[in-house]
Write a structure and sequence with these properties.
The chain is mainly α and about 375 residues long. It contains 16 helices and no strands.
């Protein structure tokens, strides 16, 4: 069989994607429930909400450089299974939360699980993909991410309203358990030539350039995750799950229909399109204070976020051999964690002194900063085609 004819959608790849659906559904359950839980049940302010929602990104960022090499030496299955277990413990821990500090602590545990899980499953998806279809494989894999994040918030919001937030935490734990089983069944073993010890450097330096571009492009999105629920409550719309679902459905649809677009356009043009749409969508949410404005802005933001990760992810993957792939992913994905963690804190500070609208405006402005950086400081390195 030639490289060009190798299949992508094998049974193992499909099971891997199902593992992603269940895991990210568990994470999605939390987003519409945790902000109100921190604010109403625990008495936290906007900064506390931003820290609780985005705090998992801070612990994940610290852990990634260690977990990346671990995924190469121990294998993808090892880190995926432990990731699901830790994430489940972090979500279930909310059953015993009585203060903001304890909520943040369990969120940090969830972040540690996220670091383990994502490094393993993202590397496994690339291991199972033909080399010439890596961007396409990333798009399909990310569809499972957003499928979980589409369904999760709707279920979480409805379950919290009909039963309680405790029911949400319990269901999250169950879904992580399912992800554990599917992950154990689908993950490939240790890559050929896997290192037996720790590397000389925990950072895969060539992956830092695309990581910088990803992190800048996600700062505004992290504010969206942290504060869209409270923003739509303020304008009198009680169904934030529908907003999360709109975002996810847009991303899923575009990544299925245009899965090969990042491979064809290359990272520079793809990232430029992403930054422009992200800024536009966040600014619409900031200044159009009606329900239609929320949905229009969310849809345009989703268009912006759809292709940024696949293009830059493949750029990072191409910089590493297979036996250093988890290390490259660990370095690259630090940007996601820092963006979620720091973005929530930064924009929470904006809310503290101003309003949710100004936080979304600031988030859109950060996307413009990302555009300027991508077109100037790192432009020569973006002239890459697949």
């Amino acid at each position: 069989m030639t490289a060009q004819s190798q299949p992508l959608l094998t049974a193992r790849f499909v099971v891997l994607c199902l593992c992603g659906v269940f895991y990210f559904m568990a994470q999605g359950l939390v987003y519409p429930v945790l902000p109100g839980f921190v604010e109403n049940d625990l008495g936290g302010g906007p900064v506390a909400v931003g820290l609780a929602v985005g705090g998992f990104g801070l612990s994940a960022a610290v852990a990634r450089p260690l977990i990346g090499p671990l995924g190469d030496s121990k294998g993808r299955r090892f880190v995926v299974v432990w990731g699901c277990v830790l994430a489940g413990v972090g979500i279930l821990g909310n059953l015993w939360v009585s203060s903001v500090a304890v909520a943040v602590m369990f969120r940090l545990v969830t972040g540690l699980g996220e670091a383990f899980y994502f490094v393993g499953i993202a590397a496994a998806a690339q291991d199972l993909a033909p080399e010439h279809r890596r961007g396409e494989a990333t798009s399909y894999f990310s569809v499972t991410v957003y499928s979980g994040l589409a369904v999760g918030p709707i279920i979480g919001e409805q379950l919290a309203t009909a039963v309680s937030s405790d029911a949400v935490w319990l269901l999250g734990g169950v879904l992580c358990a399912v992800g554990t089983v599917l992950g154990a069944a689908s993950m490939p073993g240790r890559p050929e030539g896997a290192p037996s010890g720790w590397p000389d450097s925990f950072i895969h330096w060539p992956a830092l350039r695309p990581a910088l571009l990803l992190g800048l492009g996600l700062l505004g999105y992290s504010g969206f995750l942290a504060f869209i629920k409270l923003h739509v409550d303020d304008i009198g719309f009680a169904h934030s799950g529908a907003v999360f679902a709109t975002f996810a459905v847009m991303v899923i649809s575009l990544r299925i229909l245009l899965a090969r677009l990042p491979d064809r356009l290359g990272p520079q043009r793809t990232s430029t399109m992403s930054y422009v749409c992200s800024a536009t969508g966040l600014w619409i949410i900031a200044f159009w204070h009606q329900v239609p404005g929320v949905f229009v802005g969310t849809a345009i933001l989703a268009m912006g976020q759809t292709f940024l990760f696949p293009a830059l992810f493949v750029m990072a993957i191409q910089s590493a051999p297979i036996n250093r792939r988890s290390q490259a992913i660990g370095t690259f994905s630090i940007a996601f964690d820092l963006a979620v963690g720091l973005g929530g804190l930064i924009l929470g500070g904006v809310v503290e002194v101003s309003s949710y609208s100004m936080a979304f405006f600031a988030g859109g402005s950060l996307s413009v900063v990302a555009l300027v950086v991508s077109r100037t400081l790192v432009r020569p390195q973006l002239e890459v085609t697949y």
